Amino acid sequence: MTPEEFKCEAIEFVKISDKLKDSWELKSVKNSLQEDVVYVVKRGTKVKCGGRIVAIEFHVIHQVSYQVPVLGLNTFTGDGSSISHEDIWSLLQIEDKSRDFLSVLTQMDHPALFTPLWTLHPCRTADLIEGVRGNKIIGFLSAMGPTVGLHLDLAYGMTNLLE
After folding, report:
1. Which of 68, 85, 106, 119 could form a disulfide with 125 if both were Cys (CB 3.0 to 4.6 A apart)?
2. DSSP characters for 4-61?
3. What are 28-74's pLDDT values in tens digits?
4. pTM for this structure?
């Protein structure tokens, strides 16, 4: 998926989100080469973690090396501080937690914000989205989002939402 394809898919995804009132936002920032770096973000998700309420901010960004969408998240406590690696690991909804933490979730710099972002490792994403018909961001989030507690409404799969 090229950056241009990602941008088109992101625009389409946010149009559908707007119709569903699902609060995803399209963001664009100029990089040092004055190119648009596009991503989508969803704020306001709250979960219980380690006996406290944690806010999660989801980001879908384009990963240049792998040429795929990547799901990232930032987590914050009520006072605005980040949570520990162990708490983030506990948020993951995967069956086999015996795997190495960094093989599943890794930290990278956000390509537009230049801040740290926890991301699901992109190494197998190309295989995952290869057969997706329609919007690849929707297909990707439908498959990978539940891993971090993000569930898309089934209505995202309705083709008439773009009409």
Report:
1. 68
2. HHHHHHHHHHHHHHHHHT--EEEEEEE-TTS-EEEEEEEEEEEEEETTEEEEEEEEEE
3. 998 777 788 999 999 978 888 878 888 889 999 999 888 999 999 98
4. 0.87
> At 103, is the secondary structure helix, strand, or coil?
helix
Amino acid at 108: M
> Looking at the chain, how many residues does it have?
163
| Of 113, 104, 102, 38, the residue nearest 74 (C-alpha) | 113
pLDDT tens digits, residue range 106-144? Answer: 888 898 988 889 888 888 888 888 888 889 999 999 988
Cβ atoms of 59 and 71 closer than 8 Å: yes
Sign of CA dihedral 14, 124, 37, 114: positive
